[in-house]
């Protein structure tokens, strides 16, 4: 038997070249590749003629776990080269690894991640020994840029060293044992014919050892007779999907950007566009290509890249290559050179290629463009004949049925059953993250009386890929959307803001089944919320759903009741903790008190919320001068709206200070608009006080006052204006008065001008009396 | 009046310069150096790199903790026609790195200009011996060269510390030495009036990102430098080891025989890292301190903690000492920082296990104010 093992790093052009050379030389009978064995009957699907990169997407779902994983393939993947070259020399090509849904892959999102990264210690030692920043630099140094002469031996040495005595974890051991079965079977079947095995370098030592053990083991007297090659070999069984589980593997179009976005243990080789260039043009061409791409991108974005800079960058790159012992500048040599020449200020975060982390925030714009140029924008495309999962068909059918598939704008009236159904459908599609479905307008919090939605549907190039991947959530649109929503609720954890959106999305998509699970989380999270605003938003949403069963089908359910009670408790607790004196009015925290009041008013009796206790708390807040004015005003409004105030006029008189009046009133109006409107004495008092402000005070208070009075709808503002006119003995059209303040800035500028003119006239002795009343 | 003895024997010098401290290592590297040297350099680029990142074979210690690629870029820059600008937060060992680079490249780290608000061109380029100037007129004899002139004439590395502390017009006197590699002395006539830089001359400047905006560099000067940002140490283990090692050294010099307590040092380094980055180990976001929480500061706190424990009670420093010392270093005179520190000690310490964290929590009342 002649088994040649090639241990590769996934997505390594140098390894891909080695694979191609080996297969061409040996003309093997069998080519075994690390890849999902359940795809063996469907290998032709891979070879339909796609534009790479594409990926095999596998999903799995049962009661306990849900798993999705990708096996991305690009032009320079050793696995892809093995597949195509193997076919070209008429070898039998087989994928020999466990299916991606197998428990051995639990937690693995990228089949072609670097397995050795999980065993970091030895790699760190190697990097220190070679004096390089990280594994990628080491790899370029040892493999990609180094001469190809003795690459095979170098790879063996490298991976033997990396694997060393390390025992693989349970998942890797299971996979290696399974792959070893295939190798043994092929070795037997191949007889004297060569067999080529292409796997991750980390697994190679284990497979070599396993084959040696099998060869010298008990079944020694095997006769590789002349018939052995032709008879059907005892190939290992391909594990079948458990009966209670849903899942499957499909091809999806992939992109360089996604290939580059894997993180941590899931990551493989970075910078696909660079390695594509390395595959196509070799090291020298790739370096040139890289600097060109970076320069073009920067110049497109109007960044200065002078010829002097480019000369400096080139010189530095060449010098670095020399210092580091490279015959051609490697990836990081070019990048370091460009960074030295082009970045002339302090960086906020380290250069991303010195550590193996994905691009975070705070990077220098030039560095961001450099990384984008390395990453590339290539997007794969599937051949039209490629099969697709059930969800894709269900989605297409549903969209066709409701006539929503094509690019169009839709105006939906949620009170009509037909439109409501279409809306729910569109929301479910949106929840699955399928691009091209955008709601421009519509109810956004459950609080606004908005009952129309405006949707913009576009046929997006990624619709198919997204739909195939969303197929992991379920076979039908309803199941899939519900599963996606549950997942969001679980991952939202204690983020109440996110949970509120989950709840509302559930209502919009008509998926109330998901609510019960999600709400347990909300209840626990509420007790830990540090801020009023998001909590207020949550309470408002939940309360609306609790009350308006007709639209959402979420009548007085106990789960919602628990949340309401918890939120009311927490809001009252937090309100009392806000201190810090005068601050501008904050609509968010005022909103929290509004929601809390509404909850007490509409659900108080049913849910046995303690109104007296609440009133005692807001009473304390309203009287505390360390509390910001908006909250004091709101607390007072809270009391007043429950008619728990003896003499409102007296309180208003006491609280009205010109500097903070606007903010205080904003709080008051938000909670007790009606009461203010119907208390003549308070209106009169406010009129007096505002008229009594001097010009400067008024200018300072104006923005806040405007904000405060915006709580009144136009009709009520007109009423107010009428009364003001009446108080002054006029009976004109009050609406004209409102239109007059259309441009308050201009009015304010005019007033300031008047005042300056007055001041100057007085100074020059041209007038002696105050002009203003 | 007795004359002041100004030359101290080498062993009594508080901090010998790098080329003296590492004389042996430099000699070994030089003897072993096979690679080609850039013109005017004392070592090849590879040997200079090994001097800084360390080399076990030649028993050369690792002197700078950070990415090796940073050192390579810095050395390559020094071999080109651009100056090297090291920028970063205070306390990230920029000055140490600049000293090591100068020692490796030129074998001499003493041509140093300390930037400051009062730095003048005289201190950078040259000045005159006024007695001679008056009696003889301008001449080579009456000329007093400052580091820049000497570096250019002798082909050596000039260090310019805290360049952004200098006024803009003073910084700009570097323009022609950096681009044309020439310095004019208009007072002299003849060949001495132009000093052309010899091979081996270059400038290493350091600047503090906290000073950003104080005296921003002109873009003309920026173009003549390659910028390298030096970052705080990324890895807890590395920083901890460094702080422990340096603090032990300092304590020994101060006559303290007790080594710093490892648990206390770990608490200290962790707290410093969290206050610096504004994020706790479990991921809570919090406010950063505005004070500098650098590794160098951590070392000095560890030193102070050790001194306190030893001279007050005769034992290694404890978490209580740490709290007492933190107020002085971390909060300095900023009441906001003190408040942030108090909030950190009362809320972000309780959830951790370990006796030292518990002791830290219970000692939080020792913060002044």
From TrEMBL, chain A:
It comes from the Bacteria. Pfam families: DUF5682. It comes from Kineosporia babensis. Residues 213-240 are annotated as: Disordered. This is DUF5682 family protein. The lineage of its organism: Bacteria, Bacillati, Actinomycetota, Actinomycetes, Kineosporiales. InterPro entries: DUF5682.
TrEMBL record, chain B:
SUPFAM superfamilies: P-loop containing nucleoside triphosphate hydrolases. This is AAA family ATPase. GO terms for molecular function: ATP binding; ATP hydrolysis activity. InterPro entries: ATPase_dyneun-rel_AAA (IPR011704), CbbQ/NirQ/NorQ/GpvN (IPR050764), P-loop_NTPase (IPR027417). It comes from the Bacteria. Residues 84-225 form the ATPase dynein-related AAA domain.
